[in-house]
Amino acid sequence: MDTNPVIAVDAMGGDNAVKLVLQGVADALQEDHELRILLIGNKEVVEPFAAKHQRVKPLVSHSVIEMDEAPAEAIRQKKDSSIVMGAYALKNHEADGFFSAGSTGAVLAATTIYTGRIKGVKRPAITFMLPGKRPITMLDLGANADYKPEHLVQFAHMGTAFARTVIGVENPEVGLLNIGSEETKGSMQLQEVYGLFKAQVKNFKGNAEGSDLFANTFDVIVTDGQTGNITLKTIEGTAKFLMTELKDALMASTKAKLGALLLKDSLYSLKDLLNADKYGGGYLLGVKGVVIIGHGHTSARAVKNGIVSAAKAVREGLVEQISELIAQSNDSTGTINS
Amino acid sequence: MDTNPVIAVDAMGGDNAVKLVLQGVADALQEDHELRILLIGNKEVVEPFAAKHQRVKPLVSHSVIEMDEAPAEAIRQKKDSSIVMGAYALKNHEADGFFSAGSTGAVLAATTIYTGRIKGVKRPAITFMLPGKRPITMLDLGANADYKPEHLVQFAHMGTAFARTVIGVENPEVGLLNIGSEETKGSMQLQEVYGLFKAQVKNFKGNAEGSDLFANTFDVIVTDGQTGNITLKTIEGTAKFLMTELKDALMASTKAKLGALLLKDSLYSLKDLLNADKYGGGYLLGVKGVVIIGHGHTSARAVKNGIVSAAKAVREGLVEQISELIAQSNDSTGTINS
Predict the structure, then answer these.
(1) Which of B132, B146, B270 sits opposite A188 (nearest CB)?
(2) Which of A118, B135, B153, B294 is 20 to 30 A from residue A4's alpha carbon, by CA?
(3) Which of A306, A298, A308 is nearest to A12 (CA)?
């Protein structure tokens, strides 16, 4: 693996884009001295920035896919957009990774269709790390609302590859998100998935419950994109609610205000714990390149972390590891690669 | 409606049962001076207690359904258990409500089969209140892992009845838990539900997301039992994780410890906010009686609150309101009552 990864960065993505993205790129270059950037965006944005930064190559795009555009149509009509050009940069090996804080649907569609899936992968999936003493790789978080049981088996393999390379757990333990620990729990479809996992996922440790998401009991938790998306937003909503209530509690009396002052540093670290900026965004697994999709409401810190994480994943061989596990799995089950 | 409701209480339910349950019953009798209790359990438990408390009638049961027994079989084989006798007490109008902290599956099966469903109700559902300025009625939380779209329509009507009577919202706004606000979001099945809601649920306000669970945007949020169960446990897991991290943060330094001391009262109210004890448990909607299922790890406070809530729901006419809304809905859609 090349130790000087090139990460393509969508300069136009995100609600507040450009300025924040450029700041994030500058910070990433400072943190990772081997990193190279392919900066994709309007001419007047990317050329002056590249002129000032040695390891940045500009790539001029001519349109922007907006957050509310229908993804499938947008990527067909806007071939000269920053997102579609990023997907082609991966395909043509001009970049090893791609970071965009633009439309999740458009990045997903463009990289799936134009960059292409890893051989044997039926459906890409979005993954996200949950914090804790034992960080959890959770997937799928929204790439697929409808699913077939065999898709979830592939998610288990891709999640295992992710936990090995990006998180550094040699032998990740896999759980299936369900409503109880017994094999007979959940919908008929989920029970079918359980059977496939038992037969095909080497390190499957049984069903996980919602309460296992922060309990240090699994390394990888697999679910369908609809449940995963709802779960992730529930976590965010619960955390936001509790932090707001905590803030109110801290302002409730003079005594409390004084206490809050003394606790400032400790509470800051708590707030940071569930801050998505820390990880830069979600990884799209299953396409031929490292793809990170940032939050729409991104920050310079999230952009920096996303780019640095992408470079790390390239160095650790995330795509190669997924490719290997999927090939092994398809060989052993006699599945025809498609 | 009789203003002196009789609540049947399962004295044998819960991991730590008997002592906690009896304490909870005594506290409930103190709080609600009109309340009457039908206390079901072993002779040596219920008779001495009834002898000491005026408004308590004992009902002797001869077996206990354990937490890990298969519900369908257990309720057939143990007709003299506290749970089955509670279900029959509702059926025979010896009680208006039933509180048990025993096996959720067994209470669900016993009341569905022996007490019976309200006319026209296809599937009972479990509901739970989420806290906040505008409390949310969320259902189903685990009664049904597989579902048909029309079941979710009935859950919307039952949730509306619950929010009206128990929470006191005259015109509850209903949301459908999904992965985005647009009509085209989610699985094919969920899109079908959306269409039915638009046609049949009067106060339907569109899709709700995980982040809406604490955002004061809806009064009732409907989902299938599998997603609901995972969501509820995710909320509990996230809250537990954050409270543990908060505790660690408060112990991190001498300065922080001093701050924590000043904040003790304020933080206690925060911790209490997501404490399930506050509500006593989940309501089972759709059967002919008010049924509350407590947490297995119950407390005297949860038992007390569960019993008092059940009495309130009886007085407010929860069952009659569900019956009315389901009948109206079945009339207007031409559904044959079954």
Answers:
(1) B146
(2) A118
(3) A298
